[in-house]
């Protein structure tokens, strides 16, 4: 009986010590491993086939042109900028005059940006 009371008190103390401010008691989110997306293997072919056109965006398939300052089209870990590459294809503003990108291509572009937009 005494053991049950102690166990109940101990359990209550553990639960009471857990709060939103303390991360040591929280259950961690599972780590979801996403295969790394490569600029040269995954993104560049999308850009060559849909964006890099001498009459429109010549050189869009070159990494340096995407991150060129002062107004980069790609900023690592940011898909929210209004005129970013991601927003342009996500909102279907681009590619103009062509069939919209497949959802899987748009997702790859977004995932690549959120993985750090590496030149790999």
Structure write-up:
With 120 residues, this protein is mainly α. It has a domain at 39-114. It has helices at residues 2-17, 39-50, 63-66, 85-90, 103-114. Residues 10-16 and 19-32 have low confidence and may be disordered.
Order of helices and strands: HHHHH
- Uncertain regions spanning at least 5 consecutive residues: 10-16, 19-32
Largest sheet: none
| Count of runs of 4 or more consecutive helical residues | 5
Range of strand content? under 5%
Overall mean confidence score, pLDDT:
80
Terminal CA distance reads 64 Å
Number of strands: 0
What's this model, at a glance?
This protein is mainly α and 120 residues long. 42% of the residues lie in helices and 0% in strands.
Q: Topology of this structure?
A:
Blueprint (H helix, E strand, L loop, with lengths): L1 H16 L21 H12 L12 H4 L18 H6 L12 H12 L6
Features:
globular, 120 residues, mainly alpha, single chain
């Amino acid at each position: 009986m005494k053991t049950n009371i102690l166990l109940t008190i101990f359990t209550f103390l553990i639960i009471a010590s857990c709060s939103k401010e303390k991360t040591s008691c929280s259950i961690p989110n599972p780590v979801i491993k996403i295969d790394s997306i490569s600029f040269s293997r995954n993104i560049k072919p999308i850009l060559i086939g849909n964006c890099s056109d001498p009459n429109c965006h010549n050189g869009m398939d070159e990494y340096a042109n995407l991150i060129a300052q002062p107004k980069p089209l790609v900023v690592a870990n940011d898909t929210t900028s209004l005129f970013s590459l991601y927003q342009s294809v996500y909102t279907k503003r681009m590619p103009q005059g062509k069939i919209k990108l497949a959802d899987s291509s748009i997702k790859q572009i977004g995932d690549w940006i959120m993985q750090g937009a590496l030149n790999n």
